[in-house]
Amino acid sequence: MSSSLNSPQITGTGDEAPALMFRPGRAHSRYLETSAGRTFVPLGLNLCFPRFDTSPADGLARYERWFDALAANGGNFARLWIGHPFFDIEPGRAGVFAEEPALRLDAVLAMAHERGIAVKLTLEHFRTISPRREAEIFPGAASFSKPLYAAANGGFADDMADFLDNPECRRRYLKKLDRLAGRYAGHPAIFGWELWNEMNAVAAAGWLEWTRAMLPELRRRFPRHLVMQSLGSFDCEAQRAAYAACARLPVADLAQVHRYLDPGAELTVCRGPMDALCADAVSELRRMAPGSPVILAECGAVEAHHARPSDLYERDREGVLLHDMLFAPFFAGAAGPGQSWHWDFYVERHALWWHFGRFARAISGFDPIEERAEPLFWETPRLRVHALRGRRRSLLWLRDKESDWDSELVAGRPPAPASGLLLSLPPTLGGPAGVDFYEPWSDRWQSGGHVGLPLKLPEFLRSLVVRLDRESPNIVHVASVCCGAATSPSPKR
Q: CA-CA distance, 190 to 109, in Å (whole number)?
């Protein structure tokens, strides 16, 4: 197995015997690899649709801009909603398919493939076939109603429950999957197919049984791509049972979780530090889906109950929230970093793409499959320590408790450097022979030479990555990770 975490490098045209282009790692199923056995860490974000009314040319130009920025910073993954009008092949009448949206999807997939970006396609996101008031009512929010499927509008379902439960409705819906399979089965840019966005939010009770029936149908039509399902934000106790039930579905290739910083959330963790809420979500899913890769597939910050994007975004011009969304999930044992929502309101608006490059450099030279990585967590009075213990090499991400979104973005208190800190290591990490430090906020590696315990940490701002090696005190830094070294300049401080 290669120890570099590179771009997908997918081989094959789909003419040979079906084989997954991506799969859970054969040596360590908590992580992902390509069919060639190369470890694949999905580094990217949701780029689901172009917001607001846009011409086809403008929408495609946005994707070219987003993909260029992501790829330039080591990114290799993105998610699209192909039920959105920009991509929807069934735009006007149920069962009547249009060529123009498919051509747009063709173009976007080609752009992604040219840049080494693997794409997850989410089939549907609507919650009702009858108009209703939704929580997300801010300008640019996606519509969660699809009235074309209603019988009153020439469709085939009486209501959402009928859409899910009626065998004839299911048969009619499978025609759409057949249409997509005829065009995209085996497409080299596609990572996998997500059955539905946050399906337990639909206006009917039969979502789990529908998922259980449809995931095998998805697998039959796309034998070379991963298949998966997603549920709403894990922000209350009621979601626990839904996530546990979904995690037990045998056909799903990976377990996904959504979670947001939400002042209206029931769970206390969803109102606290971003690194803690992300790591907790991953830990919950790891317990529910033992042996499966786990991805924090949506994360971000919202006003209470998802009413609109968080007001914190306007103040977070350095990307404090995004930094934690990326680092915390991976260091909690996820198969990749967290995948941010609000790509346009937040990431693009403040030109925060450079954070993806910092994550790529932070994990350079660390192959979680080769190392059989397992997460550890402990706290000191000053730090939360999120760690991945490997056979020969371990990575630690230290998060300064005295600086987070509340202190910086609400209280307006600039972060103070953490200096003069010592870090004791648990016996489970073994006896390291060498240490390197990476400061993500200054983009600087430095060697700590031969290890003395406790570790004497260099001064850092907000967070620090520690790389421990059991064999050599002189670790050579590898600059190319995921899709390659980031090329965009660091922002001026």
A: 8
Q: What is the pTM of this model?
A: 0.92
Longest dimension (CA), the chain: 74
Q: How far apart are CA 215 and CA 228, in angstroms?
A: 7
- Per-residue b/e over 343-374, b at no fewer than 16 CB within 10 Å? bbbbbbebebbbbbbbbbbbbbbbbbbbbbbb
SS3 assignment, position 85: coil
In the chain, which stretches have pLDDT less than 50? 1-5, 8-17, 472-493
Q: How much is the pLDDT for 52?
A: 83
HEC string of 441-461?
A: CCCEEEEEEECCCCEECCCEC
- Tokens matching residue 30: 């908590």
CB 295 within 8 A of CB 252: no
Q: Any idea how long the chain is?
A: 493
Task: Determine the Cα–Cα distance for residues 430 and 358; give it in Å rounded to an integer.
Answer: 27
Could you tell me the CA-to-CA distances from 28 to 248, 256, 293, 370 in Å, in that order?
Answer: 19, 18, 9, 8
What DSSP state is assigned to residue 302? Answer: B
Amino acid, single-letter form, for residue 8: P
